[in-house]
Amino acid sequence: MSDQKIITLLTDFGLKDVYVGVMKGVIAQVNPYLKVIDLTHQIPPQNLFAARFCLQNAYPYFPSETVHLAVVDPGVGSTRRAIAIQLPNGFLVGPDNGIFSGVLENLEIQNIKVVTLTNSEYWQGNKPSRTFHGRDIFAPVAAHISSGVKLENLGEKINPESLVKLSLNNITFTDSGIAGCVQHIDHFGNIITNIYRSFITNKNWSLIVNNNDDFSTAQTISSGNTYGDCQLGELIAIIGSHGFVEIAANGGSAEEQLNLKYRDKVEICWLEVSI
Questions:
Q1: Minimal CA–CA distance to 230: which of 221, 242, 218, 220?
Q2: Cα distance between residue 41 and residue 202, in whole Å
Q3: In sequence order, what are the residues at sequence separation of 6 or more whose Cβ sits closer than 8 angstroms to the Cβ of residue 48?
Q4: 125-178, pLDDT tens digit by residue?
Q5: Best CA proximity match to 117, nearest among 72, 86, 74
Q6: In sequence order, what are the beta bridge partners of 31?
Q7: What is d(CA 42, CA 257) in angstroms, rounded to the nearest whole number?
Q8: How far is Cα 142 from Cα 92, in angstroms, rounded to an integer?
Q9: Fewer Cβ in 10 A, N or C end of the chain?
Q10: What is the mean pLDDT of residues 9-26?
């Protein structure tokens, strides 16, 4: 079908259990002609920062009207809201816990519509499990949206300004460089910062990390263009395919070498060029 609609799935469910397959079954019950694409189900359990980053970086590569279904939901069964969001180029469905804040941060608020998912007509039954809203609320709602159901039919409209924001440490600019933080650690152990490439264009720089209060243990990492611009096992700072500064170890894991965690501080330091 040339107009086949797409739903993406992002969860922390892993692949050992049937949870992902069950969600796909629910989607197929609503509309078996939808195309479902797995972004990842290997988000570290309850890690909203990892989910935020992965969804933010996947979103631009999908066609208009794609529904992005994301379920990393440590607050399932609590008072946290279940929501659907309509954007100029697609939809987001999942819990209101900040998981969508990476996608939303660069969008104009007037171009966003949000509803809470209170209309049980579009659920899998009218008494959802307290522990599996991915199956009972989010999956069927995503399928109904992809099948043409209007956002306003799904529940009550809410102010986009009221959505939970999952904020990273702010970028700070100084005369000597930029201070940022770790926003993601990928499968290879590459440490991805929140410092974007546009901040360091046409600059000579190195990166400084220090994961405790003892400044004497701070480590300086040279910048390069590729993972191979250093010796095997050595650390290097590059611009990753996502556009952010990342720290990598040639043939190894920067995470294991540096023991950095999400939101730990990193600094870019400008280098003087000899004439």
A1: 221
A2: 38
A3: 72, 74, 97, 98, 99, 166
A4: 889 999 999 999 999 999 999 999 999 999 999 999 999 999 888 899 988 999
A5: 86
A6: none
A7: 22
A8: 8
A9: C
A10: 98
The CA angle 179-184-188, to the nearest 5 degrees, is 120
Of 109, 108, 122, nearest to 151 by C-alpha is 122
State residue 80 phi and psi, 5-degree precision.
-60, 145
What's the rounded Cα separation, in Å, for the pair 24 and 37? Answer: 10
* Phi-psi label, residue 49: left if phi above 0, alpha if psi -120 to 50, beta otherwise: alpha
Instruction: Tell me 59's DSSP state.
Output: G
Is 70 exceeded by the pLDDT of residue 16?
Answer: yes
Tracing tokens 């009221």 back to the chain, one arrives at 162
Q: Which domains does the chain have, with CATH numbers?
A: 6-162 (3.40.50.10790), 172-270 (2.40.30.90)
Nearest to residue 243, comparing CAs of 199, 196, 209?
A: 196
Q: Which amino acid is at 36?
A: V
- Region at 51 (left for phi over 0; alpha for psi -120 to 50; beta for the rest): alpha
> Contact 34/145 with Cβ under 8 angstroms?
no
Quick one: angle between helices 139-146 and 19-30, nearest 10?
Answer: 40
Q: How far apart are CA 168 and CA 134, in angstroms?
A: 26
- Strand 82-87 and strand 113-116: pairing? antiparallel
What one-character-per-residue DSSP string does 112-157 give? Answer: -EEEE---GGGSSSSS--SS-HIIIIIHHHHHHHHTT--GGGSS-E
Q: Which residues contact 174 (CB under 8 A, 6 or more apart)?
A: none
Query: 214 by DSSP, 3-state: which?
Result: coil
Sign of the alpha-carbon dihedral angle for 226, 229, 234, 236: negative
